[in-house]
Design goal:
Elements lengths: L6 E5 L5 E3 L15 E5 L1 H4 L3 H6 L30 E3 L1 H7 L4 E5 L9 H14 L4 E6 L2 H13 L2 E7 L4 H9 L3 E5 L3 H15 L2 E2 L6 H21 L22 E5 L4 H15 L8 E7 L4 H7 L25 H13 L1 E6 L1 H15 L5 H16 L8 E5 L8 H4 L9 H4 L5 H10 L6 E6 L3 H12 L4 E6 L2 H11 L3 E4 L8 H10 L7 E6 L5 H7 L5 E4 L5 H12 L1
Parallel strand pairs: 5-13, 6-7, 6-9, 7-8, 10-11, 10-13, 11-12, 14-15, 14-16, 16-17, 17-18
Antiparallel strand pairs: 1-2, 1-3, 4-5
Helix pairs in contact: 4-5, 4-8, 5-6, 8-9, 9-11, 12-13, 18-19
């Protein structure tokens, strides 16, 4: 067994401190429930990069800063070590080139709660706990059930009745005893706590459990390692003259959907530990996003309240974030936001569902509705100017959507084709293709004239999301003129800034040709136009859109309006 680590438990209220040797659920001195874990940071700060470099890239890579003494008690199924994705298409759409996505969908059960379960259940194992109780809106119960099965711990999961039946069945599959509670999540937590007390069982306390917060800080550790190599000049704004920059990089913003506040609280602690040890260059601003139908933190913050006003009757379809009583979490996160910058925002369910569509169609990322809230919050903050064009932004994609929820797609998400009739045609391949072509007789021909291949790809994806257009492309102004002459598209999406033959010349050539002069043209440009350039476009195009200032639905609405 390795030498015991130096680990202490500290009360955030009275600063009582004692070595971590026994389970603590409240401060022995003042009764405070917000307990934090402290380590020997001075001894670790110069050694940590070398220590972890020899370890696999997963949650337990950061063993030295986790509250477990004996590695034999580690319960792992490959949690952590999730990818950091550069949201290229989204960044082009929004005019923000440094948007990154921490892809927590890759956990063993498909959500970032696997980090929490791995550490929490490992700590239970080390403390000799054999039976435990948890309250959940879905993801926590699934993760805890998987790891409890691995540990041989009997789990009682109290779930709100609004949790989808598919998730309840998955919880039960692991052998967990499932209790469905008709009531809010806060009422469910109370029932679970009463049951645990009555039966003398260990109750997982979520945010009030030090192991839960400690697990979430590993997101910060991983991001700090991953981010630097993905930025062209990661230390351009942080290195002092003549001073060696820190080895790792933190983002300017960390954005996450919030229910009880566990994720941002833990991630903040991780970045602060790295910053205090001189291993990261900054502490990011936190953006905590809530569903407007249950947003006690966001509403209380806007009112300047120190203690959150509870929401007693949540009105949101996104049940995983429907915590009406945030308690200590709001006070803690509010202090961080006021000290380091950041915000609390509320967005609607519809905005979250729209964000899910955008991310799936633009960058190929299918996510749970809670993660959709985070991206909807990102869109809102960019629109308000809170996030600047050069800010480095990290969004937590907290989990996958298993399965896609029915209300997201409506009734028209699929079209049917009877291949049996097609097989009788001669030749069979042509008959099948003809049947496919007949699915939509209103296909519109749209030409994209753009020299930047990434921009062409983005526009193509925007259009393909509708699945109703024949898309033609030209990579230069000269090729674009020939394309329009030969193919006669219904609409042209035209960039202005192209070498040799620019968009102005393309426009003038088309308008000078009697057979083409009625072609509809939308100009999409990143160029800031002078008054003279605007006059050259006036009355000759359908609309002018600035790159980076539109979302896909905005563009589609303009295109559809033009084609009507």
């Amino acid at each position: 067994m390795p030498k015991p680590k130096q680990i202490w438990i500290e009360c955030s209220d009275c600063y009582y401190l004692e070595p971590l040797k026994r389970p603590l659920f409240a401060c022995p001195s003042c009764g405070g429930e917000w307990l934090d874990v402290r380590y020997d940071y001075e001894a670790l700060k110069d050694r940590l990069p070398d220590l972890i470099a020899r370890r696999p890239f997963n949650l337990w890579r950061y063993w030295d800063l986790l509250p477990l003494q004996n590695p034999a008690n580690i319960l792992s199924m490959g949690e952590g070590g999730t990818p950091l994705l550069h949201a290229t298409n989204l960044g082009m759409m929004l005019g923000r080139s440094h948007i990154f996505v921490k892809d927590e969908r890759q956990g063993p059960t498909g959500s970032f709660k696997d980090r929490q379960a791995s550490l929490a259940i490992s700590v239970m194992k080390e403390q000799g706990i054999t039976e435990a109780v948890v309250a959940s809106t879905g993801n926590v119960a699934i993760s805890y059930s998987a790891y409890s099965a691995l540990a041989g711990i009997k789990l009682w999961a109290f779930l709100t009745s609004s949790v989808p039946a598919d998730k309840m069945r998955e919880v039960a599959l692991y052998g967990t005893q499932v209790i469905k509670v008709t009531g809010t999540y806060d009422q469910t937590k109370k029932v679970a706590a009463d049951f645990a007390q009555h039966k003398g069982l260990h109750l997982d306390r979520g945010l009030k459990s030090f192991s839960a917060k400690e697990s979430m800080k590993t997101v910060a550790f991983e991001v700090a390692e991953q981010l630097g190599p993905m930025l062209k000049d990661p230390h351009a704004r942080c290195a002092e003259p003549g001073k060696q920059p820190p080895p790792w990089r933190a983002p300017d913003w960390y954005i996450q959907a919030v229910s009880g506040g566990l994720g941002p609280a833990g991630v903040y602690k991780g970045f602060k530990e790295l910053y205090d040890m001189g291993l990261a260059d900054r502490i990011p601003k936190l953006a905590c996003i809530q569903a407007s139908g249950c947003a006690p933190m966001a509403h209380s913050f806007k009112q300047g309240l120190e203690i959150a006003e509870p929401v007693t009757n949540p009105q949101t379809l996104i049940t995983t974030v429907a915590t009406g009583y945030p308690g200590l979490a709001y006070t803690f996160l509010r202090q961080i936001v006021l000290k380091h910058g950041g915000t609390f925002e509320a967005v609607s369910d519809d905005e979250a569902f729209r964000a899910m569509h955008i991310m799936a169609k633009m960058d190929g990322i299918s996510m749970e509705p809670a993660a959709g809230l985070a991206f909807a919050g990102l869109f809102k903050m960019i629109s308000s100017g809170a996030i600047r064009p050069d800010d480095v932004v990290l969004v937590n994609c907290s989990g996958h959507t298993f399965p896609v929820e029915k209300h997201l797609l409506g009734d028209t998400w699929m079209q049917s084709l009877d291949a049996r009739d097609a097989e009788m045609a001669e030749p069979p391949e042509e008959g099948l293709l003809t049947s496919l072509d007949s699915l939509d007789t209103r296909i519109q021909r749209i030409a994209i004239i753009e020299d930047d291949p990434d921009a062409r790809r983005l526009l193509r994806r925007v259009l393909q999301a509708r699945g109703e257009y024949q898309i033609l492309e030209a990579e230069s102004g000269r090729a674009g003129i020939e394309l329009v002459r030969q193919e006669r598209p219904d609409l042209v999406l035209l960039d202005l800034m192209m070498p040799e033959v620019d968009g102005f010349e393309v426009l003038e050539t088309i308008r000078a040709d009697d057979s083409l002069r009625n072609t509809r043209i939308i100009v999409i440009t990143a160029k800031s136009l002078t008054p003279g350039e605007r006059r050259r476009l006036s009355g000759r195009i359908e609309i002018l859109l600035q790159k980076g200032s539109f979302l896909d639905d905005d563009l589609l609405e303009e295109i559809l309006a033009t084609l009507q």
